Amino acid sequence: MYCxxxxxxxxPEVLRALIQRYPLATLVSVxxxxxxxxHIPLYLAAGGxxxxxxxxxxxxxNPLWREAPLDGEVLVIFQGPQxxxxxxxxxxxxxxxxxxxxxxxxxVHAYGPLQVRxxxxxxxxxxxxxTAQQENGFTLPWQVDDAPQDFTERLIGQVVGIxxxxxxxxxxxxVSQNQPLGNRDSVVAHLEQQKQPDSEAMTEYVLASLKDGKxxxxx
Length: 219
What we know:
CATH superfamily: Electron Transport, Fmn-binding Protein, Chain A
CATH topology: Pnp Oxidase, Chain A
Distance between the termini: 30 Å
Number of strands: 10
Mean pLDDT: 91
Low-confidence stretches: 215-219
Radius of gyration: 20 Å
CATH class: Mainly Beta
C-alpha cells in the first residue's frame, strides 16, 4: 500500500480500535484460480505476548481454508470510514482557487499466515466472542446460547475456523492532515452538515488528527 508518512498510522491501539469498529474484512489470498478475495468478519483476539491474532470462520464449502498456502501470507484489509471531500469546502478556495476534490479514508492492512481451526469447540468460542463484541451496547444483547443447541451445533458443523497471527500491520489515515489548519476546520464544518452514513465517523477522524497535530506541535 502506498502510504506517505503524513498518512501513516502505526499505533497499535488506534489500529485495534478501527478493526473492532469495522470488523468486516477483505481477506486476499492466492487460490486455485489465482488471487481470491473473501469478505469475512474477523475478531481481533489477544495473541501470545503482544502479537495480535485475527479469528473467524468460513463456509466449509469455501475453498479458502483448503487452498491457503502453508508457507505464505494472506492480506487482510479493514475499511474504516470514507468520504468524498469537495474542493468547495476548503477555506482557501476563496483565496487562491487552487483546490481539487479528494477522498478521505482510513484503512488497516494486516499480514500473516492463515491457519485452519477445524474444531467445533474453537469455532463456537470464536462465534461467542465476535457476537459479544457486536452485541455490546444493545439493551438486550443476543447470545449464541439463546438459540437451540442442536440448531447451532448443526450450523457450526457447516463452517471451518480460521486464525491469522498478524506478523505485520499498518494503517493509512488520509483524513486531511496535508491541508492547512483552516481547510481542516472547514472540512469538519461541512462534514457536520452532511447526512451521509460515514459523515459523522469521518468528522471524528479529522478531529482526532487535528488533536494529534496540535499535541505534536506543543511537544
